[in-house]
Amino acid sequence: MSKQAPHSNTQANDEPLPEPPGFRESREKIRRLKARSSHGLHALALFTAVSIGAIRDFDFLPSLPTGMRNVLGTPPSANMISTALLLYAFSAIILILSRMMGGSQSYSGMAHVGYLSGFYLFYHLGGVLPDNVWAVFAAGVTVLGLESYHIWTFCNEEIRKELEALDESGRKQRLQQ
User: For the region Disordered, what residue ranges are annotated (predicted)?
Assistant: First the structure.
């Protein structure tokens, strides 16, 4: 009589055990969570690409026509933009930390990329982007890094719970046989 390995998926006569209820759904959920856990990296990569353009002062884009600049009016001062950037960064960090403490699964990385790109745009229109590009970059890496960490830890915790549930249902099934 052959001994069964502790975590084997076969019976003593080498017949495969039937899948526990919900096994396929759990595997699909784990696959989705693994894919979702890397969304923060996608946002960081996009922000890095935008930042490279900002470091170059968006010299690869065409200039805004004079008529369009007149319609937009006078850009805000650099101090006003910097104050808004500071408020945005602290608000975003506090919101991310509160979502982390609450165990929320919400993620807003791509929205942060859009907001941070807006700060690059305001500084560019104000003609002070070269002096402020590193401030936006530092705020962006901080916010997006924290957001990425939040979604990664959330997904890994959910994956751990799913694996434990699968392991438990597999044990119950083995005990019933």
Answer: 1-24
Question: How far is it, in rounded angstroms, from Cα 51 to Cα 71?
Answer: 27
Residues 132-172: tens digit of each pLDDT: 999 999 999 999 999 999 999 888 888 888 888 877 776 66
Among the listed residues 47, 157, 158, the one whose alpha carbon sits nearest the alpha carbon of residue 92: 47
Calpha distance 117→112 (Å, rounded) = 8
DSSP state of 126: T
What does the alpha-carbon distance between residue 170 and residue 7 come to, in Å, rounded to a whole number? 9
* Predicted TM-score of the model (pTM): 0.78
DSSP per residue over 45-61, as a string? Answer: HHHHHHHHHHHTTTTTS
Which tokens go with 140?
């962006």
The single-letter code of the amino acid at 133 is V
Give yes or no for a contact between 82 and 132, defined as CB atoms under 8 angstroms apart. yes
The pair phi, psi for residue 16, each rounded to 5°, is -65, 145
For 5-73, give the DSSP string: PTT-SB-TTSPBPPPPTTHHHHHHHHHHHHHHTTHHHHHHHHHHHHHHHHHTTTTTSPPPPHHHHHHH-
